[in-house]
């Protein structure tokens, strides 16, 4: 078995973990949820949950990884043999996510190339996105390039690969995000007179007009769901990264920094997107998912005139960086598990998983071609209509396996090995565990209840509509 590498210090760990947390969910999901859930109300609820629910899950997983010195596939079983199944479930999540995440990463790469080469107006045309993803040859080509880049970084290892890339991309990403956010506030629609500052007001000022009790409940669950996916928990990543975190480094301070970084980028993503969409397309332009990034945003850049081409290139370059730092963490969770469980070399693990991900990715890409045997349209239990194969795999990973893993983790730490296991590991060097009582209450009672509600909503058992 290969000697386990460690991050060179807390900065390397924080940037790598933040790189995993700051992904497509921050960019195409957070702004839409904030816009439809009362603006500032959603932001306040999200912040409260980040400091309680998010902190609890994040510090738990990082502590498990550092304590056991194992990736998630074997870490849970090392804490308690009866919970070895939890490690298997947590390893299934990144295995499912990697193929389709690289496909979406390929879409981002395609749009980045289009804007960088000065062809952004093409991307703004109706039907461009659907035409692109419906052509398996082109979609697979970009999927392959993105997957290859991901594999190359992981092949180079923890220090030369993950840490080195994160130290470069994360500061650059933050600079671009701040720059576009500031620019978004300065724009104005000359025809309507609407300004970016009005869009910012729509984003940050609470708007609860007509809200019923069910609407407030939806805001809480949407904020929790977004946070749950945003901080990269329940998918083996933070356990794996925790196993690379040195014993002598301050774990609590590092987790706090990850929280801050992820929350700031999520908020700034809204400042980037919502004012710009509001100025040129109004409230009607607010949407989420791929439609926001690949259909709405290009039209916004086109409406800006000449400067829109440049801003669009920067935007998609930023999204590409966010997607890449997230995809490498997903692959590392799989590769590290193979190394720990089967003693596989890093080289063999990367190559074998890369081939599997490419094959699955090819099948998913053909799922968008109407005459393909892999084409499908299925209504999901959470209310999503007419979804393709990619959405089905995404639903299984994000809405079934991840909540189950998180609930199981809460039961293991909260009731079996007890919260003291995490508290002692996190404060092993004498660090003060400032939210000890809150952590204990969250991991034993509150978080399992909230996660169970989230799972029931995902299964369509509960609805706030």
TrEMBL record:
Please name the InterPro entries in this protein's record: Na/ntran_symport (IPR000175), SNS_sf (IPR037272), YocR/YhdH-like (IPR047218)
TM region(s), chain numbering: 39-62, 83-109, 138-156, 168-187, 227-246, 258-281, 310-335, 355-376, 396-417, 438-462
Q: Which SUPFAM superfamilies match?
A: SNF-like
Q: Which domain of life is it from?
A: Bacteria
Pfam families, per database record: SNF (PF00209)
PROSITE patterns in UniProt: NA_NEUROTRAN_SYMP_3
Is Plastid among this UniProt entry's keywords?
A: no
User: Keyword Zinc-finger: yes or no?
Assistant: no
What topology does it adopt in the membrane?
A: Multi-pass membrane protein
Q: Which UniProt keywords apply?
A: Membrane, Transmembrane, Transmembrane helix, Transport
- Per the record, GO CC terms? membrane
Compartments in which it is found: Membrane
Name of protein: Neurotransmitter:Na+ symporter, NSS family
């Amino acid at each position: 078995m290969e000697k386990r590498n460690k991050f060179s210090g807390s900065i390397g760990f924080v940037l790598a973990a933040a790189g995993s947390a700051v992904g497509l969910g921050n960019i195409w999901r957070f702004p839409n949820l904030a816009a439809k859930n009362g603006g500032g109300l959603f932001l306040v609820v999200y912040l409260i949950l980040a400091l309680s629910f998010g902190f609890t899950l994040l510090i738990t997983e990082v502590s498990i990884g550092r304590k056991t010195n194992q990736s998630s596939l074997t870490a849970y079983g090392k804490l308690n043999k009866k919970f070895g199944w939890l490690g298997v479930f947590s390893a299934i999540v990144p295995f499912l996510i990697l193929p389709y995440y690289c496909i979406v990463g390929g879409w981002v790469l395609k749009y980045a190339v289009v804007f960088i080469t000065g062809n952004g107006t093409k991307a703004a045309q109706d039907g461009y996105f659907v035409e692109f993803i419906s052509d398996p040859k082109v979609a697979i080509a970009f999927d392959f390039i993105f997957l290859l880049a991901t594999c190359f970084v992981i092949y180079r290892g923890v220090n030369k690969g993950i840490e080195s890339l994160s130290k470069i991309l994360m500061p650059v990403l933050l600079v671009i995000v701040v720059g576009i956010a500031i620019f978004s506030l300065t724009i104005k629609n000359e025809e309507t007179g609407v300004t970016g500052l009005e869009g910012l007001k729509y984003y940050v000022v609470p708007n609860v007009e007509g809200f019923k009790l069910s609407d407030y409940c939806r805001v809480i669950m949407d904020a929790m769901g977004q946070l749950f996916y945003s901080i990269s928990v329940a998918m083996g990543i933070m356990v794996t990264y925790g196993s690379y975190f040195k014993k002598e480094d301050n774990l609590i301070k590092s987790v706090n920094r990850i929280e801050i970084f992820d929350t700031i980028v999520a908020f700034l993503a809204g400042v980037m997107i919502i004012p710009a969409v509001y100025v040129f397309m109004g409230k009607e332009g607010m949407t989420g998912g791929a439609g926001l990034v690949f259909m709405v945003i290009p039209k916004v850049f086109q409406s800006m005139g000449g400067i829109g081409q440049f801003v669009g290139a920067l935007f998609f370059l930023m999204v590409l960086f966010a997607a890449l730092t997230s995809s490498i963490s997903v692959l590392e969770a799989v590769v590290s598990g193979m190394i720990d469980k089967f003693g596989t070399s890093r080289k063999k693990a990367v190559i074998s998983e890369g081939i599997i991900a490419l094959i699955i990715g090819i099948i998913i890409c053909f799922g968008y071609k109407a005459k393909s045997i892999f084409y499908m349209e299925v209504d999901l239990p959470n209310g999503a209509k007419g979804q393709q194969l990619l959405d089905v795999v995404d639903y299984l990973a994000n809405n079934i396996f991840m909540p189950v893993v998180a609930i199981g983790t809460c039961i293991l730490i909260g009731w079996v090995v007890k919260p003291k296991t995490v508290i002692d590991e996190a404060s092993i060097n004498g660090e003060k565990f400032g939210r000890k009582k809150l952590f204990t209450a969250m991991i034993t009672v509150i978080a399992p209840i909230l996660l169970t509600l989230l799972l029931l909503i995902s299964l369509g058992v509960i609805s706030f509509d």
